[in-house]
Design brief:
Layout: H1 5-15, H2 17-53, E1 70-79, E2 82-91, E3 113-115, H3 117-125, E4 142-143, E5 156-161, E6 185-189, H4 199-202, H5 204-227, H6 231-243, H7 248-276, H8 278-281, H9 293-296, H10 300-320, H11 323-327, H12 329-333, H13 343-360, H14 367-399, H15 403-414, H16 416-439, E7 452-456, H17 460-477, E8 481-486, E9 500-505, H18 509-518, H19 531-534, H20 536-574, H21 576-584, H22 589-625, H23 634-655, H24 657-663, H25 667-670
Parallel strand pairs: 2-5, 3-4
Antiparallel strand pairs: 1-2, 1-6, 3-5, 7-9, 8-9
Helix pairs in contact: 1-7, 2-5, 2-7, 2-10, 2-20, 5-10, 5-14, 5-16, 5-20, 7-10, 13-14, 14-15, 14-16, 14-22, 15-16, 15-22, 16-20, 16-22, 16-23, 20-23
Length: 672
C-alpha cells in the first residue's frame, strides 16, 4: 500500500499559503548563507595547505655528498616591506643532471635568472637601484610558472650560479643570527623533494583553522535556526494531524522530508554561489597575496559533504522540535506548556568551564590545545545560552514595571530557545570580537631597528674593511647613512652580537631599499637585512592572525546578522496569532515593537558581555602559548565591534517591523 506521507506533505506545503512560502524561503536563505560560509572557510584552509606545499621545494633537502648533484641556497630580502624569496642554484661539476625545479622547464645555467610575474612587474616599476640590481644583470628574465609559486602575487627569483659563488657558499646557510630561521638555508641536493615549509607560508593554514573553528558554531546556529523557522505554525498543523490519527513516525517523516528539501535547495544555492564567486574569492589577499583559482576549488566531494551537512543540521533541528507534538499534541494545540529549560544545562556548562580553566592553568598550552579548548567553550555556551535566557525572563518579569518589558519577559521565559536563537549569533560573534581584539595586535619585544641595514662579516677585522667599502658604496648610491661596526658584546642593533656593519640610513623606505641594494656586494653569502627581516617571524604570525581575524569578524557578524534577521522575521510569522490577539485587546503597535526590542536587548547585554570577556581570556591564553603580547589599543577595536554588533542587531530587528505591521493590519481576521 502506498504511503500517504509524501502526498500529504506536498499538499500541506502547497496549502500553507504565502506566509508558509516566506518561511521556507527564509530557511533556504539561511541554509545558503551557512553552506557558502563553510565552503569559503574550508577552501581557504585547504588552499593554504596547497600554497604551503608549493613552497617546500625552496628549502633545500640535504643528501649525502656522494649523491649530491647541485647546491641550493635560500635567501630572503625585502623591498617596500615585502619579502622577496631568492633561490640560488649551482650545478656541481662531474655530477648527473639535476631535475628542473617546480615552475621551470630546465635547471638554470650559470647567469640565468627566472622571476615570478609579480616580481617582474615590480622590477619594471621600481628603479634598478632599489631592487633589480640585487640580482645578476641579464638581458632577459625567464618566468617562473604557477607550479613553483604559492600565489600569483608572490615575489620569487631563481638564479643560476657557479659553485664558487658566495651566494651558495657555506655562509649562505645563515645561522649566525636568530633571524635566519626559515629565511635562509643551504644544502647540497639531488632534487627538489623538500618537505619543510618556509617561514612565509608555514603558519598560514593554522591561522585559517582558527577562523574555521570560530565560524563553525555561528554556521551551526544559523542552520539550526533555519530548521526552526515557522516552527510554531508547523507544530500547530502537525498537532492537529496527530490528534486526527497520524502516528509519531508519520509526523516526523513529514517534517524531515519538508526540512530536507528546503535545506538541500538552500545549501545547493550556497554551493553554486561559492562556485560562481571563485574568481572573486581568489582576488582576496592572504599572506603572500591572492590565490590561484584551483587552490580554492574543493571539488565535488567537499561541496556535496557541506551541502549534506547543512541539510542534516537543518533537518535535525526541525525534527527535534516535534518531541512534544508526538507525545502531547493536545498541549501543543492549546499552547499549554512553555518551553522551560533544565538545570542540567547549567551543570554541564559549569563542568566544561571548570575543565577549561584547570587545563588552561595547568601549564603552557600548545596552539592546537588552545584551539580545542576554545571550540569546547564555544559549543558549551550554545547549550548554556537558553538556560540564561529562561532565568533572565523570569527575573525581568518579576520586576517589570512597563507593559513592553512584561511582554518581553514573558516571551523570554515561555520560549527561551527561540529568544536565544535570535541573539546567539551576535553573542557568539562577541566572543570572536573579544578574542581577536587583543590577539591580532602584538608587540615585537620592544625591538626598534628602523632604518638600519646590517651586513654580517666573518670577523671584527673583516667588519672594519667592510665598513669602509660600505661608506663608498652608499655615497655612490646617493644614500646618506652613518656606518658603524658591531662587536660580540653589542646587542642593541640588528647584528645581535655578531661582527659586522650597521648602516643607519637617513630617509624613508626608498632610501633603505637603495641601501640594501648598494650593500649587496658587501655581504658574504647572505643579503643585507633590515628590520623586516629581523621581525619576520613575529610579524608573520601576527599578520596572519590579523588577516584571519578581519575575515572571521566580518563573516561572523554577517552570519549573526542574517541569523538574527531571519529569526526575527520568522518569530513574527509564528506569533501572528498572539500579536493579533494583543492588537484586538488594544495593545498599540509601538508597544509590541518595544517588547520585541527588549526581548532581544536583555539577553544580548547579559550574554554578550560574558562571551566577550571569555573571548579576551581565551585570546590571552593563546597569546601566552605563542609567546605573543597584547596591545592595549585592541580595546578600541573591541568597542568598535560592540557598536557594530549592536547596530547590526537593531537593523535586523527593524527589518521585520514592516512584517509585524502587515500581519497585524487586520487583527479581526488573523487572530484565529
Amino acid at each position: 500500500m502506498r504511503s500517504p506521507v509524501l502526498p500529504l506533505t506536498w499538499h500541506l506545503a502547497r496549502s500553507a499559503g504565502r506566509r508558509g512560502l516566506q518561511s521556507r524561503l527564509l530557511a533556504a536563505g539561511a541554509a545558503a548563507v551557512g553552506a557558502f560560509v563553510m565552503l569559503v572557510m574550508i577552501a581557504a584552509s585547504v588552499g593554504a595547505g596547497i600554497r604551503a606545499d608549493h613552497t617546500t621545494w625552496r628549502t633545500p633537502a640535504a643528501v649525502p655528498a656522494k649523491q649530491a648533484t647541485a647546491v641550493q641556497a635560500l635567501a630572503t630580502t625585502y623591498v617596500r616591506h615585502q619579502p622577496v624569496t631568492v633561490v640560488s642554484l649551482a650545478r656541481l661539476p662531474g655530477r648527473p643532471a639535476t631535475p628542473a625545479p617546480p615552475g621551470l622547464g630546465v635547471f638554470p645555467r650559470k647567469g640565468e635568472v627566472y622571476v615570478s610575474p609579480a616580481l617582474a612587474e615590480l622590477m619594471g616599476r621600481l628603479p634598478a637601484s632599489r631592487l633589480a640590481d640585487r640580482l645578476p644583470k641579464v638581458t632577459s628574465y625567464g618566468t617562473i610558472g604557477a607550479a613553483g609559486l604559492a600565489s600569483p602575487d608572490e615575489l620569487v627569483a631563481v638564479v643560476g650560479r657557479a659553485p664558487s659563488d658566495p651566494a651558495v657558499s657555506e655562509a649562505a646557510g645563515g645561522g649566525t643570527t636568530w633571524f635566519d630561521e626559515g629565511q635562509s638555508a643551504r644544502a647540497e641536493i639531488s632534487g627538489f623533494s623538500g618537505t619543510r615549509k618556509p617561514l612565509l607560508t608555514g603558519s598560514d593554514r593554522d591561522a585559517v583553522l582558527l577562523g574555521l573553528v570560530l565560524l563553525a558554531m555561528p554556521v551551526v546556529v544559523l542552520s539550526s535556526a533555519a530548521g526552526r523557522l515557522g516552527a510554531a505554525r508547523r507544530e500547530q498543523r502537525l498537532a492537529a494531524l496527530r490528534l486526527a490519527g497520524a502516528t509519531p513516525r508519520q509526523i516526523l517523516t513529514m517534517t524531515a522530508v519538508e526540512a530536507a528539501v528546503v535545506g538541500a535547495a538552500g545549501a545547493l544555492a550556497g554551493a553554486l554561489a561559492y562556485v560562481a564567486l571563485l574568481p572573486v574569492l581568489a582576488e582576496v589577499p592572504y599572506g603572500v597575496g591572492g590565490w590561484y583559482t584551483d587552490q580554492l576549488w574543493l571539488g565535488l566531494p567537499w561541496c556535496a559533504a557541506v551541502v549534506a551537512g547543512v541539510t542534516v543540521l537543518l533537518t535535525v533541528s526541525a525534527v527535534s522540535m516535534l518531541r512534544q507534538v508526538a507525545t502531547a499534541p493536545l498541549a501543543v494545540a492549546q499552547e499549554a506548556n512553555p518551553r522551560r529549560t533544565r538545570w542540567i544545562r547549567f551543570a554541564l556548562f559549569a563542568a566544561a568551564l571548570l575543565y577549561i580553566w584547570q587545563t588552561a592553568n595547568s601549564g603552557k598550552l600548545s596552539p592546537r590545545q588552545a584551539l580545542v579548548l576554545l571550540g569546547l567553550f564555544y559549543g558549551t555556551f550554545w547549550l548554556f545560552g537558553p538556560w540564561v535566557v529562561d532565568r533572565l525572563g523570569r527575573i525581568a518579569g518579576r520586576f517589570a514595571r512597563r507593559p513592553a518589558t512584561l511582554l518581553a519577559a514573558r516571551r523570554l521565559s515561555d520560549d527561551p530557545r527561540g529568544a536565544w536563537r535570535t541573539v546567539s549569533g551576535l553573542v557568539l560573534a562577541g566572543f570572536v570580537a573579544g578574542f581577536f581584539s587583543v590577539s591580532q595586535l602584538g608587540s615585537l619585544d620592544g625591538r626598534d631597528y628602523r632604518n638600519q641595514v646590517a651586513v654580517v662579516t666573518p670577523s671584527t677585522a673583516d667588519a672594519r674593511h667592510a665598513a669602509a667599502e660600505a661608506r663608498t658604496l652608499l655615497d655612490r648610491a646617493g644614500v646618506t647613512a652613518t656606518v658603524t661596526t658591531g662587536g660580540a658584546d653589542d646587542y642593541g642593533n640588528l647584528l645581535g652580537g655578531n661582527p659586522g656593519v650597521i648602516a643607519h640610513v637617513l630617509g624613508g623606505t626608498e632610501r633603505v631599499d637603495t641601501a640594501v641594494t648598494a650593500l649587496t656586494s658587501v655581504a658574504a653569502g647572505t643579503p643585507p637585512y633590515t628590520e623586516d627581516y629581523a621581525t619576520a617571524s613575529d610579524r608573520t604570525a601576527i599578520d596572519r592572525l590579523s588577516e584571519v581575524s578581519t575575515a572571521t569578524l566580518a563573516l561572523s557578524f554577517a552570519v549573526a546578522t542574517a541569523s538574527a534577521g531571519l529569526t526575527a522575521a520568522a518569530n513574527v510569522l509564528d506569533r501572528r496569532r498572539v500579536y493579533g490577539l494583543l492588537r484586538l485587546a488594544g495593545t498599540p503597535l509601538r508597544v509590541l515593537n518595544r517588547a520585541r526590542v527588549r526581548e532581544t536587548v536583555l539577553p544580548l547585554v547579559v550574554l554578550a558581555g560574558g562571551t566577550t570577556a571569555m573571548g579576551v581570556y581565551g585570546s590571552y591564553k593563546l597569546n601566552q602559548a605563542a609567546d605573543l603580547t597584547i596591545n592595549a589599543t585592541g580595546a578600541l577595536q573591541l568597542a568598535a565591534c560592540v557598536v557594530i554588533g549592536a547596530l547590526a542587531m537593531f537593523a535586523a530587528i527593524a527589518g521585520s517591523r514592516p512584517l509585524l505591521k502587515k500581519v497585524t493590519a487586520d487583527p479581526a481576521q488573523t487572530a484565529d
